[in-house]
Sequence to fold (425 residues):
Amino acid sequence: MAKGNILFTYLLRLADDHLILSQRLGEWAGHAPTLEEDLALTNIALDLIGQARSLYSYAGAVEGQGRDEDQLAFTRPERDYVNALIVEQPNGDFAHTIVRQFFIAAFMVPFWREMEKSGDDQLAAIAAKASKEVAYHLRHASEWVVRLGDGTDESHARMVEALEDLVMYTGELFEKDPVTDAAIEAGFAVDVSALEDEWRQTVEQVLGEAMLALPEVGYMQTGGRDGIHSEHLGHILSELQYMQRTYPGLTW
Amino acid sequence: MAEVVELGKRSDTKVREAAWAAAAAVPDPEIPVVTVADLGILRSVDIDADGAVVARVTPTYSGCPATRMIEQMVLEALQNAGFGDVRVESVLSPAWTTDWISNEGREKLRQFGIAPPQKTSNSKRALFGETVVNCPRCGSAETERVSEFGSTPCKALYRCKACKEPFDYFKCL
Ligand SMILES: [Zn+2]
Fold:
């Protein structure tokens, strides 16, 4: 693969992670347990969509085929989406949303921090902004993990269930493949496998405070980076893309 | 010849100053009591080799919906000030920080009812430490955070225990 192709694929993976998670969080608009939380989840979604836009715009420029952020987001079919499976998992109850958010934010904090050292100036600039923003995302999720885990029997039980349901999607975040290997070799990527210890430390510390534990996991789900998704992504895309699919090129 | 160059330079400076003044007066669309210059969003205004005015702005948060509007407003302010050839560029690096909000801007925020951000946002303590946020109305330090995210991504929601008023706190970034 040529260097440009690797950078494009690498950016697309990151952009897809952010767009899909943002879309999921946006589903809470008007449905969160309190007004403050409604604002919090949608504001986090807004941060993510901003990060996704920067990444898609840059990916489009790198690709050089004239595709802009909107075309990349709204016209690619499911198999061309290369996000990690965890971001497309359903919101479920509030515990599931918080655990998903917690797992991802605990990863994004060291990820963007390391990306600030990227040999690619544009990626480093995007990272400098994102790493400040995800710090708030992690604090938000961590506070809820403690509140729910160390809360009532009901909230504790729901957190246990959410942890068990979602832990199998965390392994993919630390996976490497020929694309990431080449990207690291080229000097612009983060070696995600080196972040796993820090992630585990953060997660276990907060779960400990919350009277919870990270469940043992027999196997990890994978496939998103190759476009092999869970049943959920198609439904997300049908809602996300429907307007541009129905009226191609529509603007307002 | 030297004198001509000097004159050229002087007028360039004047043009740049006039352009800066026009762009700097643009109010923030979400908090109109402060300008884009007060907030540190307007990074520079220069005249390029072809004589075009180039204003550089930086987004506060990645997803700030006001970013595009600010770019448009700066463009229009420069055009309305009589500059024909105008460009507004967005720069990501160095990343915007609340430390760039001027002291004047901080005071305007406080008078508007928004607690201004603490300085030294680049230290982790400011991001995560339990900072004391004073009530912008009565000045009391007896305040509590209601929500990490307020009416916009840049603000958190607080409540004053002394005067019982809720207020926004401009978060450190
Ligand atoms: Zn007060």
About this structure: The first strand of chain B starts at residue 42 and ends at 47. The CA atoms of residues 11 and 17 of chain B lie 10 Å apart.
